[in-house]
TrEMBL record:
This is ABC-type sugar transport system, periplasmic component. Its main location: other. GO terms for cellular component: cell envelope. Keywords: Signal, Sugar transport, Transport. It comes from Deinococcus peraridilitoris (strain DSM 19664 / LMG 22246 / CIP 109416 / KR-200). Belongs to the bacterial solute-binding protein 2 family.
């Protein structure tokens, strides 16, 4: 019987759920080459933000001459884990991963590392108790989600003088943006006796789910005067629910969001959304620039934070053309 390599033993152990012991200290090396075969494990493609992110990655890969192995997990953490496994089997040079959920994908990151494939996380993080930047994956590129939530909360405190009855539409349960956007927002309004969150429920970052959830919560809390949605899609869904109930979004009920897609920015200009913190999806240039720097042996920080703008009634028309 042939002896199995250390990598194959690790992958076999991981497949049956056994503890995985790293076969080497530090991150896998990446040779400098003109072109790479790179995996991009996308979490879903059901909204404009994800479509814009995917296009940015594909466009930049094409511009550089890289082969991009693209997968779409269709909103399933289990499928995304399987997608990463497939990329490992295809021996890609590196993997870009937008984790659907923090815990399951932390294990997938460690499997890739054990197989000698460096991973760069895009826009969502993994559970930091299970996987660490600089050890298990190269870096996280994205926005500061806690800061996004904090900015929304601070804007609301200022605009309402600390008086608000709020419904919070949360993102996908277990995802880093949902966890952090809630934390940032709630920390920002903490101590404001006149601000109360009437209800918080996941809308799974989806427009129709956001509409359905808002419709139900509106019946239970007709006195709501603020909706804080963790993304534009749920905010747009909430607007539909408010209008169906005879309320004027932006006036009777303030609507706050994060992302800054063109449709939502137009709604700011129209007065139906009051405030948006941007979360820019155009990751391609920064992602591949970081990959090249890593291959060149340059020191990569644990987090690379994208600069994000804000959209208000005062600037929405001016900035509309630059929104994704």
């Amino acid at each position: 019987m042939k002896r199995k390599t250390a990598v194959s033993l690790i992958l076999a152990a991981a497949a049956v759920g056994a503890p995985v012991i790293a076969y080497a200290q530090g991150l896998p090396k990446l040779a400098q080459k003109k072109t790479y075969k790179v995996g991009f494990a996308q979490t879903e493609s059901n909204n404009p933000w994800r479509l814009a992110q995917t296009k940015s990655m594909q466009d930049e890969a094409k511009r550089l001459g890289h082969q991009l192995v693209y997968t779409d997990a269709a909103g399933s953490a289990a499928k995304q884990v399987s997608d990463v496994d497939s990329m490992i089997a295809q021996r890609v040079d590196a993997i870009f991963l937008a984790p659907r959920e923090e815990k399951p994908l932390a294990a997938a990151v460690k499997k890739a590392r054990a197989a000698g494939i460096p991973v760069i996380l895009l826009d969502r993080n993994v559970d930091q108790k299970l996987a660490k930047a600089g050890t298990d994956y190269v870096t996280f590129i994205g926005s500061d989600f806690i800061e996004e939530g904090r900015r929304v909360g601070e804007w609301l405190v200022k605009k309402t003088n600390g008086q608000a009855k709020i419904i919070q539409l949360e993102g996908t349960t277990g995802s880093s943006p949902a966890n952090d956007r809630r934390t940032g927002f709630e920390n920002a309004i903490k101590g404001q006796a006149g601000m109360k969150i009437l209800a918080s429920q996941t809308g799974d970052f989806a427009r129709d789910k956001g509409r359905q959830v808002m419709q139900t919560l509106l019946q239970a809390h007709p006195d709501v005067n603020v909706v804080y949605a963790h993304n534009d899609e749920m905010a747009i869904g909430a607007i539909a629910a408010l209008e169906a109930a005879g309320k004027k979004p932006g006036k009777d009920v303030m609507v706050l969001s994060i992302d800054g897609g063109r449709e939502a920015v137009q709604l700011v200009a129209d007065g139906k959304i009051n405030y948006i913190v941007e979360c820019n999806p155009k990751f391609g240039p920064k992602a591949f620039e970081t990959l090249a720097a890593y291959a060149a042996g340059k020191k990569i920080p644990a987090k690379i934070i994208n600069p994000d703008r804000e959209f208000t009634a005062e600037n929405a028309k001016q900035l509309l053309s630059s929104a994704y």
